[in-house]
Design brief:
By secondary structure, this protein is mainly α. It has helices spanning 3-19, 23-31, 35-45, 55-69, 72-91, 100-114, 116-126, 131-139, 159-188.
């Protein structure tokens, strides 16, 4: 699979993840960032000066910035970074391509330390590239790729109205053909 398609799919997954998070959760994830990570995140999504001072508004500001700047993918990666770094340290050499079993060993503690939502964002990041994470997303309901299903309504057709439209269409075509035939007959004279 090419990089553009992967990026598109990951962006959709992050967008869906953010749609399913409430503002308080987003604010908690953002406020957990420290130092350069926090500063970079603020610049990425365009947070105003002092945005981290008001947790009540932070979630809405982050959501608005992600939406306006179409930065769901990058924001998701940064918000999950503390959890990702911790898991890399815990997994050691296995962090390059952890198995599902290795993930099951480390994730309970990661969830306890960073929260399920942060661990989900981390899983999204690697769900296209690492086999263990692909299996995790496919087999563990907590990490399944959630989405907002488009609402599909059943189209109800009024058969009588449809029949009337068909008859009107036939009449119009017949009139057009008659006019065309008359025009051609007049040209021959």
């Amino acid at each position: 699979m090419n990089d553009d398609k992967d990026r598109f799919l990951l962006d959709r997954r992050y967008t869906n993840a953010f749609e399913n998070l409430d503002d308080a959760t987003i604010a908690n994830l953002a406020s957990a960032l420290e130092g350069d990570l926090r500063d970079g995140f603020a610049r990425l999504i365009g947070l105003p000066e002092g945005a981290f001072d008001d947790l009540g508004q932070l979630g809405a500001l982050v959501r608005d910035g992600i939406s306006k700047r179409r930065a769901a993918h990058d924001a998701g990666v940064i918000l999950a970074e503390p959890c990702t770094q911790w898991c890399i340290e815990k997994l050691g050499d296995a962090s390059e391509d952890p198995t599902l079993e290795q993930l099951h060993e480390v994730l309970p503690e990661a969830i306890e330390k960073f929260g399920l939502d942060c661990a989900r964002l981390m899983a999204i990041q690697y769900s296209r590239s690492l086999k263990g994470f692909r299996q995790l997303v496919a087999t563990d309901e907590r990490f399944a790729v959630a989405g907002t299903a488009p609402s599909v309504g059943v189209l109800e057709k009024d058969e009588a109205a449809q029949a009337a439209k068909r008859e009107a269409r036939k009449a119009r075509k017949a009139a057009e053909q008659a006019a065309k035939a008359k025009q051609q007959a007049n040209k021959r004279r």
